[in-house]
Design goal:
- About 45% of the residues lie in helices and about 15% in strands.
- The N terminus is likely disordered.
- Strands 2-3-1-4-5 form a 5-stranded parallel beta sheet, with helices on both faces.
- The termini are far apart.
- It contains 7 helices and 5 strands, in the order βαβααβαβααβα.
- It is of the alpha/beta class.
Length: about 180
């Protein structure tokens, strides 16, 4: 009788996405803890010039985001190459940004946090020690391209409790 090896499933790699103030970091940390994988705060990878630009209330454009996205893509590729799970909090506002991240790992999944503009603005206004002013929310909402049907991911209502959001990512309905 030949011994049969049972391989364990590949660890999950997720991007928790959405506009600033939607709760990406909190949900991402909880998801990473639930999965037992590393959490990366995408904001920590912005260049000093990008941070200064945002802090001054100037929206980033595609060229500003290019190096940042390539760096995040590298982190995803490294995790995939090592067979490690990962959760990244990253706005991933446009489809082409998500495509760039997904190029590092075709199995990459996205959890898109969405909700009313007023609630997000209120959350942004209540934050302390964050460089992103609430005045940039509208530019982010303009740039946002929601997940498309052919993208692996879930759409989540940020009004739900954090524990429920994490559970909805781990066990989405209809999968």
């Amino acid at each position: 009788m030949q011994e049969q090896l049972i391989s364990s499933p590949e660890p999950a790699r997720w991007v928790v996405m959405g506009v600033s103030g939607c709760g990406k970091s909190e949900v991402g940390k909880r998801l990473a803890a639930a999965l037992g994988v590393r959490f990366l705060e995408g904001d920590a990878y912005h260049s000093a010039s990008n941070v200064a630009k945002m802090a001054a209330g100037i929206p980033l454009d595609d060229s500003d985001r290019a190096d940042w996205l390539r760096t995040l893509q590298g982190e995803i590729a490294d995790a995939a190459a090592r067979g490690e799970g990962l959760v990244l909090a990253c706005s991933a506002l446009k489809r082409r940004y998500r495509d760039l991240l997904r190029a590092a790992d075709p199995g990459l999944r996205f959890a898109h946090l969405t909700g009313p503009r007023e609630l997000i603005a209120e959350r942004m206004g209540a934050r302390t020690a964050h460089y992103m002013p609430a005045s940039l929310l509208d530019s982010q909402l303009r740039d946002l391209e929601p997940l498309q049907a052919d993208e692996d991911g879930v759409l989540l209502d940020l009004r739900k409790p954090l524990a429920d959001l994490t559970e909805d990512i781990l066990h989405p309905q209809g999968r």
